[in-house]
Amino acid sequence: MKELFDIIPKLPGVRVYLFAGDEATAKELGEFCAEAGHYLEIAALEDEIYEKLEGIEAKVRRIDEAKERYNQRSWMFDTVFVTYDLARLQDQEDFLRKIYRMMKNAADLVVLVPPDKSEELQNLLQELNYVAINPIDLGQKVAVTAKKMHGWAKV
Predict the structure, then answer these.
(1) pTM of the entire structure?
(2) Residue 28 above 90 pLDDT?
């Protein structure tokens, strides 16, 4: 997972968002962002995950999947990571649409999925106006990366 952190721009004031699925990745990303001087916000979609994230160097909050917007204060983010299991969502398409709206133009999205779900996710991202969609094989998981590009239709 640490290799994927290189996707984050090496600039000051970068904003990173994580939809956490596990404590280990959240801690790794928290340490990486603290060292690099990036702002990190972590969202937990379940109480069980939220409780495990206490003590991580980041803004950690519990949000409801059905919430109208995921980004408080209308901040836009440069990189969004999703390690949360998409199969547990009620509506994957709506979830990815909300993420699209919280990303800056040319921002990166990185979603970890099982290998058998990679192609399905790539097709959904393409339908939702994400571009530069690429799978990165990590063995037991596939990191599907995508970009939000300016000038494309609103989602």
Answers:
(1) 0.92
(2) yes
pLDDT above 90 (res 112): yes
Domain locations along the chain: 13-148
Distance CA 47, CA 51 (A): 6
Q: Write down the CATH number for the domain with range 13-148.
A: 3.40.50.150
Query: 61-111 pLDDT, tens per residue?
Result: 999 998 888 877 778 999 999 999 999 999 999 999 999 999 998 899 999
With vertex at residue 102, the alpha carbon angle to CA 29 and CA 99, rounded to the nearest 5 degrees, is 75
Instruction: Please give the Cα distance from 91 to 88 (Å, whole number).
Output: 9
CA distances from 112 to 10, 12, 51, 80, 104 (A): 22, 26, 22, 11, 20
